[in-house]
Amino acid sequence: MLLQPIVNLVEILSRKGVHHAIISPGSRNAPLTIALVRHPAIETLSISDERSAAFIALGMAQNLRKPVAICCTSGSAAYNYAPAVAEAFFQEVPLIILTADRPKEWIHQHDGQTIYQTDIFGKHVKQSFEIGADYSHPDAIWHIERTVNHAVNLANTFPKGPVHINIPLREPFYPLENEVVVSDGNVRVIERVETSNVLSNEVWANLLASIEQYDKVLIAGGQNEFDPDLTNILAKLQDEFNFPVVGDSISNLKFNLISNQDVFLQQDAENLAPELLITFGKSFISKSFKTFLRKNKAIEHWHLSLDNHLIDTFQSLTKILPVQPLYFFSKLLEEIDFSQFKNGDDEERSSDYLDAWKRNSFKANNYLEHFFLENFHQHQLNEFYAIKKLLDALPADSQLHLANSMSVRYANYIGTDPTKKIEIFANRGTSGIDGCVSTAVGAALTTTKRVYLLIGDLAFFYDRNALWNRYMPDNLNIILMNNHGGGIFRIIDGPSKQAELDDYFETVQSYTAEKIASEANLEYFNAKTVEEFHQLSIAFLQPNGKSKIFEIETDSKYNTEIFKKFKAGFAL
Question: Which residue in 24, 212, 220, 442 could disulfide with 72, CB within 3.0 to 4.6 Å?
């Protein structure tokens, strides 16, 4: 076969654990498409919209915790991958990006579907690769195999992330009618043996000596995948050694950690400011938490990260520890425990600092619950109330995807019951509204769990093509908060005071999701009143084997009034 090296390229992907691919139809990528589809160990889906396709792959890769391939034709198709590629890069999610291209001599020659694709994703991939268009010399085959091995190895190396392989292709693209498309078996797989970073005994001795100097040691987790072992270790550090552990909802720490910090942080800074801050994970949702730590800088700040970038979110970084959080906190627990045993020290570490955090967290949680009890006996429906009721009612062991803007913020205030072990996802790498529906669709395609997406109207309609495919799963449940505009712009101070608010910030719109639900064959519910909401919530939450949209229509101005009342009402 003329394009046998492309078939062998796909064989290497399979042997290296890439078993899912999202293909967007085109002609230039036909050899890749045929090789992927006909490979018995690779599951392929055809998604026409490249932007949606890449976000669906992102959602799949998050669940599978393995690379997913995306494949498109030449030209602007590749550019449509860019938002999801950037999100994957900052979330450290592995994607294998396969872009078909014209041979070099045809670029900028007024031929169809030709753009400059080399390094098209810039710094938003771990590395870009390109193979040659001619395979006549044995070294060309060696280069292709070496490139594919390198790319997949790199995508899987911590910190994980997307890699790009640009593939110029010459005609003919299509096999003969009865031609068998299989690997010739003569491919070479190059494995990269992973090692675990550890810290030397000397480093540990210095770290422990530093910890002993400080009474106020704070552990804070950014966005992270759910890890029950890490959760258990951090729970012990908090319960047994009085280190407060703080995390947003997307930290996925399912124990009784400090929460509701958004509510109370501006009021007790003197008692809560850390002397030593230990952080792990990626981004933090809470602006209050970031502002608090920037204003009240720790004497020392250690960040656990295998990333080569120097990330100083709180402007206080003093030490980067290039190790995994589970290793670090497990070893920390072991070392502190052993140190106390060796020294015959039965005296517990003072709980004053932890108590201060717990006291504030408890008061904030009580305030949250009482606010809902006292303020929602009226008949006008608002989104804060609706989200609280639905998040409280989510079934255990489900997944919750949070769209950006107000959805992720509401959910961070409200939280979920940690005993239910609900894993939470959000596109907080770039925090854009694009692709939120597609990411949830990808997740639902790769799990048997119920997947819930909490999303606002602008983010939903922006990504409506996520539902334009033949593969809609039956476990996707979309909670659509439709206030007919970008309600967040009424809440934040800057745009809310501008004459251009309605047309240029909030962007008022009159759409509903009813027709979209019908076209995608999703069950549809719509509530505009408190009574309708309570009645339909029961039906929506029933796992009846069909995907659903629950559209909750509210008034943006009333939502703003309720939320500002909530923000202003808390006092220590």
Answer: 24
